[in-house]
């Protein structure tokens, strides 16, 4: 068994954080799904920029689209919508076999709408209709506007991948928005058993921001926390998830067939070479979770990763680590807001570059 495939029996779904026309048409996507037990795909503006700028399979179609009276965004969508449909078709068997738990392909709403709730709702519904696949997930950021949009989109029956969560405020707002959306469906007499969502916590960016602050403080206590904050936050977030979705608040919805909004670990490629190159995968394996992993990190785990139940080990230490961070004067809630703002800008910048390709 592939070392990646060995994660699946432990209750965690591994998704691929990459998508391109070449990956689909070459059969490579189907191959890694089959051989590594990968059960989903995620994309973002940076991924599509890389794909469209480097994959020759887009060249002819893009040239033809540039002859048409379309906006740059319309050309971008005309390029990627067929790819998303094709990827959904490749993963559809997984969706059917898992009764909708996995087999998803994720597409981001326009990053220009991150603070526009109504615009996000409209954009998401339009993309959902255009792609017309039940195993599509629409990605919405966990901004204040995004929270409003998430509730409405869940109530409308869309599958949602919430992105850019960095602190417990984000986690709590996102998970409760999902529940409110399901409750609205129930109130409207709509079924809830086929609505699925994930809530994505981004990891490597956390340690990239916090580690230099710990080094500047320089005490043994501060230095001991380097490389631990992102993983500690994930473990604390997971405890929040379990209390909510295995508690009384969700019980009535669960009785109606509703699915929990699984936690997803994103940005899981290690940036600091001093740390294990698979730590955001190997150290966070646990049931009812998803990890979306870039190709390079999958290759590393395939080579020397070890699949074991690690997510629920060291929870007390994780709580202590977050408390120690506060004692050092680092306000993690504020850091999370900064990280979300920076993440939004990175996606927006990537989208600008992407549209420049199709202008």
UniProtKB/TrEMBL annotation:
Protein known as: Transaldolase
NCBIfam families, per database record: PRK03343.1 (NF002881), tal_mycobact (TIGR00876)
InterPro entries attached to this UniProt entry: Aldolase_TIM, TAL/FSA, Transaldolase_2, Transaldolase_AS
A GO cellular-component term linked to this record: cytoplasm
Reactions accelerated catalytically: D-sedoheptulose 7-phosphate + D-glyceraldehyde 3-phosphate = D-erythrose 4-phosphate + beta-D-fructose 6-phosphate
Xref: PROSITE patterns: TRANSALDOLASE_1 (PS01054), TRANSALDOLASE_2 (PS00958)
HAMAP family listed in its UniProt record: Transaldolase_2
Keyword list, A-Z: Cytoplasm, Pentose shunt, Schiff base, Transferase
Taxonomic classification: Bacteria, Pseudomonadati, Pseudomonadota, Betaproteobacteria, Neisseriales
Pathway involvement of the protein, from the record: Carbohydrate degradation; pentose phosphate pathway; D-glyceraldehyde 3-phosphate and beta-D-fructose 6-phosphate from D-ribose 5-phosphate and D-xylulose 5-phosphate (non-oxidative stage): step 2/3
Record's keyword annotation contains Isomerase: no
Principal location listed in the UniProt entry: cytoplasm
Gene from which the chain derives: tal
Purpose of the protein: Transaldolase is important for the balance of metabolites in the pentose-phosphate pathway.
One Pfam family in the UniProt entry: TAL_FSA
Any GO BP: pentose-phosphate shunt
Active-site residue list: 139
Known EC number: 2.2.1.2
Organism superkingdom: Bacteria
């Amino acid at each position: 068994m592939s070392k990646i495939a060995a994660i699946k029996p432990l209750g965690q779904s591994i998704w691929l954080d990459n998508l391109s026309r070449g990956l689909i048409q070459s059969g490579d996507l189907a191959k890694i799904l089959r051989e590594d037990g990968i059960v989903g795909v995620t994309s973002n503006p940076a991924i599509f920029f890389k794909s469209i700028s480097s994959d020759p399979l887009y060249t002819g179609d893009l040239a033809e689209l540039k002859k048409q009276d379309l906006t740059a965004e319309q050309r971008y969508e005309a390029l990627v919508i067929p790819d998303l449909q094709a990827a959904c078709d490749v993963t559809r068997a997984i969706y059917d076999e898992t009764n909708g738990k996995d087999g998803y392909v994720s597409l981001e709403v326009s990053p220009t709408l991150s603070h526009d709730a109504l615009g996000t709702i409209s954009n998401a519904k339009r993309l959902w209709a255009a792609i017309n696949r039940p195993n599509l997930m629409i990605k919405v950021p966990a901004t204040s506007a995004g929270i409003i949009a998430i509730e409405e989109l869940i109530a409308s029956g869309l599958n949602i991948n919430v992105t850019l969560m960095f602190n417990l405020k984000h986690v709590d707002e996102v998970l409760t928005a999902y529940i409110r959306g399901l409750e609205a469906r129930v109130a409207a007499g709509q079924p809830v058993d086929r609505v699925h969502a994930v809530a994505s916590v981004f990891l490597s960016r956390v340690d990239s921001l916090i580690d230099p602050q710990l080094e500047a403080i320089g005490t043994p206590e501060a230095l001991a926390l380097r490389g631990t904050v992102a993983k500690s936050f994930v473990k604390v977030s997971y405890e929040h998830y379990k209390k909510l979705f295995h508690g009384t608040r969700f019980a009535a919805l669960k009785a109606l067939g509703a699915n929990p909004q699984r936690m997803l670990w994103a940005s899981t490629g290690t940036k600091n070479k001093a740390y294990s190159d698979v730590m955001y995968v190997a150290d966070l394996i646990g049931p009812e979770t998803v990890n979306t992993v870039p190709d390079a990190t999958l290759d590393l785990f395939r080579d020397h990763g070890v699949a074991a139940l690690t997510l629920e080990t060291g929870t007390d230490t994780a709580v202590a680590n977050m408390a120690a961070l506060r004692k050092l004067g680092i306000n993690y809630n504020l850091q999370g807001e900064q990280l979300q703002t920076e993440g939004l800008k990175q996606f927006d910048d990537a989208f600008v570059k992407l549209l420049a390709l199709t202008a």
